[in-house]
TrEMBL record:
<keyword id="KW-0410">Iron transport</keyword>
<keyword id="KW-0408">Iron</keyword>
<dbReference type="InterPro" id="IPR003439">
    <property type="entry name" value="ABC_transporter-like_ATP-bd"/>
</dbReference>
<dbReference type="GO" id="GO:0016020">
    <property type="term" value="C:membrane"/>
</dbReference>
<dbReference type="InterPro" id="IPR003593">
    <property type="entry name" value="AAA+_ATPase"/>
</dbReference>
<keyword id="KW-0067">ATP-binding</keyword>
<dbReference type="GO" id="GO:0015689">
    <property type="term" value="P:molybdate ion transport"/>
</dbReference>
<dbReference type="InterPro" id="IPR015853">
    <property type="entry name" value="ABC_transpr_FbpC"/>
</dbReference>
<dbReference type="InterPro" id="IPR050093">
    <property type="entry name" value="ABC_SmlMolc_Importer"/>
</dbReference>
<dbReference type="InterPro" id="IPR008995">
    <property type="entry name" value="Mo/tungstate-bd_C_term_dom"/>
</dbReference>
<keyword id="KW-1003">Cell membrane</keyword>
<keyword id="KW-0813">Transport</keyword>
<keyword id="KW-0547">Nucleotide-binding</keyword>
<dbReference type="InterPro" id="IPR027417">
    <property type="entry name" value="P-loop_NTPase"/>
</dbReference>
<dbReference type="GO" id="GO:0005524">
    <property type="term" value="F:ATP binding"/>
</dbReference>
<feature type="domain" description="Mop">
    <location>
        <begin position="292"/>
        <end position="356"/>
    </location>
</feature>
<dbReference type="GO" id="GO:0015418">
    <property type="term" value="F:ABC-type quaternary ammonium compound transporting activity"/>
</dbReference>
Amino acid sequence: MTQTHAVTGTFRDGLDAHLVVDRGGFRLDVALTVAPGEVVALLGPNGAGKTTALRALAGLTPLSGGHLRLDGTELDRTPPEARPVGVVFQDYLLFPHLTALDNVAFGPRCQGASKAEARAQAAEWLDRLGLAAHSGAKPRRLSGGQAQRVALARALATRPRLLLLDEPLAALDARTRLEVRARLRRHLAEFEAVAVLVTHDPLDAMVLADRLVVVEHGRVVQEGTPAGIARHPRTDYIARLVGLNLYRGEADGHTVRLADGPPLTTTEVLSGPVFVAFPPSAVTLHRDRPSGSSARNLWRCEVAGLETHGDQIRADLTGELPLAADLTTVAAAELGLHPGAEVWATVKAAQTHAYPV
């Protein structure tokens, strides 16, 4: 996502947060810095602490420690209603008895604007988000995509310096999600302050965010650009998220020795602790041990499961090296694959990618 925001005025400092929250046996300890005009996605499995972090930023969950500064102003003890923060919740939380116009006008009214001023600002935001024709509709008359945009307009109408989006596309069906994701991307690209998005959907994160912060068990395990994380995953969760087989071992030249598994051959020459990754599409399956294959990596495996993956079949393999392999429906049929079938898996060294831990 490419942005060309000018950093001026009160937006020059952005977000500087160290979020420490103790809740029962769970501890969140996440450092987060976001520049003005930048969109950061907090990504992670269920229970990782993403929503806790978002609620801490909004002031809905108090910090146990750390700090929270926005544009140089301490917000640690500022009540939620006094924070310059706009929130788009997963289920949008629109007022069912108010029209779209009055839902959006609610924020400016709370900030002291007259009814006429608030409605004028709301009408401008609805027009900006392509909803002018629906200003008089109540939430029950709106589609999922329209309701999502009304919620976004309501958050933006208060002119927040921090915009928080909690799974903003989760309530949408697949077709609507595609359209709304594209619209939301355009609106976020125009937003001049700080935006933090929470999601467990890798596509939402990759499309909408400039930078990803991956959280597991309450801590940051990796952060970087979407492309960088997709190419260099550092945990099994991230590898599954971006669709790669990932292993960790000790490199000695072209050979990587795994702690629990056979050695892997790579094209990189490395030494010491490394990760090795390759896509399921790089794996070739054979029913008999191949004799003429040029692949340097060969393992005997067993099919643990098969599932449709897009227009292909993904085979979950166990054995000498647990891995995932993608193949066409025709290839799966010709190989006679079924759970329990024994196969040989090969991967060429040139299709692996090794990088330091």
